Amino acid sequence: REARPEMRQRDLPRATRDDRQPDRPAASGPSTDDVAAFAAGESVRLYRWMGAHLCDDGATFRVWAPNATRVDVIGDFNEWRAGRNPLRRRDDGSGVWQGFAPGAAHGMRYKYRVDAGGGAVDKADPFAAYAECPPRTASRLWSLDYAWSDAAWMRTRAAANALAAPMSIYEVHLGSWRAWGDAPQNGYRELAHALGDHVSAMGFTHVELMPLTEHPFYGSWGYQTTGYFAPTARYGTPQDLMYLVDHLHQRGIGVILDWVPSHFPNDVHGLANFDGTQLYEHSDPRKGFHPEWRSHIFNYGRHEVRAFLASSALSWLDRYHFDGLRVDGVASML
């Protein structure tokens, strides 16, 4: 929603170098300011340098695992063998491990093998831009290039989303919309035109998409998230989702994403016990585990966790042109 400029400026974290340079190449390494802002919880676009980024002859990898004793990136490019592409711990105290894998290319699968001294566990990339279609759990190297055609909407959307503007929101779960059975039957591109026709005919101004962040259990309808930067592969590629948002924008329809920063599941490949410790979740089970949802609660007092979540939120606005977020579980977070 539109707000007074002074309120927007007041509520935002202090700008860091990666926030002030939106066109900086994603694969470029972090500056001293970037790393300091991450540690202070003030960076809101970590996806520009964390995670996996394709280069001409391979890919760079960066993952936060401060308590690990060893981290390897394994994947299609090294026959899933540890030791071929070990990451090294940065010497700045950030807890970030990084490295380069020659031959890594678009579409290839990968994971991090994280060893905390008590045995290694294979983890999906918390910053992955894309993943295998569940029930498979590997991350995928993916370019997010897309030629947008919604410039007219983007120029004027502040007025369409203003508090004084009329707003009528159509909420939809993409996988089950006009479908029968338990399995997802729709795709992002296939839904774009039919959904646009229906929403326009009914007079809605906005569509709210129930969670599309990658999730292992389809029955959760997206509310048990493991991939906070990756649209679920059940309905297509990231570019297919971009096409859906792009098409709705061209028809004058705003798009809101249901986003879930309140809890996450305990799947082995996910965020739980990521580096052998309670890294993303609160270590006190009274604060870090939700008994009704049977899931972990983020440690909001940890600076890096706040930066992770803020970066996830802005990635959907920046990369996918979503107009806003519906935040799930706010009462639980408070």
Structure description:
Helix content is 25%, strand content 21%. The chain has 334 residues and is of the alpha+beta class. The strands form 5 sheets. Strands 1-2-5-4 form a 4-stranded antiparallel sheet, with no helix packed on it. Strands 3, 6, 7 and 8 form a 4-stranded antiparallel sheet that branches. A hairpin with a 6-residue loop joins strand 4 and strand 5. Helix 3 (32-40) crosses helix 8 (303-320) and helix 5 (188-202) runs parallel beside helix 6 (238-250). The longest helix is centred in the last third of the chain and has 18 residues, at 303-320. It is globular, with a radius of gyration of 20 Å.
In short:
25% of the residues lie in helices and 21% in strands. The protein is of the alpha+beta class.
| Major sheet attributes | 4 strands, antiparallel
String of helices and strands = HHHEEEEEEEEHEHEEEHEHEEHEH
Q: Residue ranges: pLDDT <50 for 5 or more in a row?
A: 1-26
Distance between the termini: 21 Å
Radius of gyration, whole Å: 20 Å
Question: Which structural class fits the helix and strand makeup?
Answer: alpha+beta
Total number of helices: 9
User: Average pLDDT across residues?
Assistant: 90
Strand order of the largest sheet: 1-2-5-4
- Helix proportion: 25-40%
Write down how many β-strands occur, each being a DSSP E stretch of 2 or more residues: 16
Beta-strand content estimate: 15-25%
Give the CA-based shape.
Answer: globular
